[in-house]
Specification:
The termini are far apart. The longest helix has 14 residues, at 76-89. The chain has helices at 2-12, 57-61, 76-89, 108-118, 134-138, 165-172; strands at 46-48, 54-56, 66-72, 96-102, 126-129, 145-150, 155-160. The chain has a single domain (38-172), classed as Glutaredoxin (3-Layer(aba) Sandwich). The chain has 175 residues and is α/β, with parallel strands linked by helices.
C-alpha cells in the first residue's frame, strides 16, 4: 500500500508531462540575433583541430553550403551516431563540412588520441578540441547534440542525433 501511495505521489508531481502536447513552447527567435536556436546567427567559435590549427566558424563555412557540428565524448552511443553519419549521411553531402567536437579531452593532442582510439582519425570528420567547453556552452549542447549551420551562418538544426533522417532532411534543404 505504501508503495502505491509513493507511486501516486510521484506521478502527481509530473503534472501535464504524462501527456505532453508536443507543442514547442519556447519563445520565438528574434531575427538577426546570435545564439544556438534555429533561425539565429550561429555563435562564433575558435577551436583547435587535432593538428593544433585554429578552426573558426568563418573558416569552417568558407566555400561550403554548411557545416555539421556533432558533440561527442567518444562513448558507445556517440560511436553509433558518428558511424551512422559517416556511412549514411556524409556520402550524400560533399559540399558540407562535418566536425566532431570533443568536449571532454581538453586539448588538441588528447582529442586526436581519442579520435584515433575510436577509429575516427582521418575518417572524413575534422576533430575539434573544445578546450574549456566553450562551444558546448555557446551551442547549449551535450552528448549527441547535432548542430547544422548553413553557409550564411544561420543555425538550421540544434537537437540530439536520432537516426540521421532529420539531419539528411535539413542538409537536403540547404541553399
Amino acid at each position: 500500500m505504501l508503495l502505491l501511495l509513493v507511486a501516486l505521489a510521484t506521478l502527481a508531481g509530473c503534472g501535464d508531462n504524462l501527456f505532453p502536447s508536443g507543442e514547442d513552447k519556447r519563445p520565438p527567435v528574434q531575427p538577426g540575433t546570435t545564439g544556438p536556436a534555429v533561425g539565429q546567427q550561429a555563435p562564433d567559435f575558435s577551436a583547435p583541430d587535432t593538428g593544433g590549427a585554429a578552426v573558426t566558424l568563418a573558416s569552417a563555412l568558407a566555400a561550403r553550403r554548411g557545416i555539421v557540428l556533432y558533440f561527442t565524448m567518444w562513448c558507445p552511443i556517440c560511436d553509433s551516431h558518428m558511424s551512422n553519419m559517416r556511412s549514411s549521411v556524409m556520402p550524400q553531402f560533399s559540399g558540407v563540412g562535418f566536425y566532431l567536437v570533443d568536449y571532454v579531452s581538453g586539448a588538441a593532442a588528447a582529442a586526436g588520441s581519442a579520435a584515433a582510439a575510436a577509429g575516427y582519425a582521418g575518417g572524413g570528420f575534422t576533430i575539434l578540441a573544445d578546450v574549456g567547453q566553450v562551444m558546448l556552452g555557446s551551442y547549449q549542447a551535450t552528448m549527441g547534440t547535432t548542430v547544422v549551420i548553413d553557409g550564411s551562418g544561420t543555425v538550421r538544426m540544434n537537437e540530439d542525433y536520432q537516426n540521421g533522417a532529420r539531419l539528411v532532411a535539413v542538409l537536403g534543404g540547404l541553399p
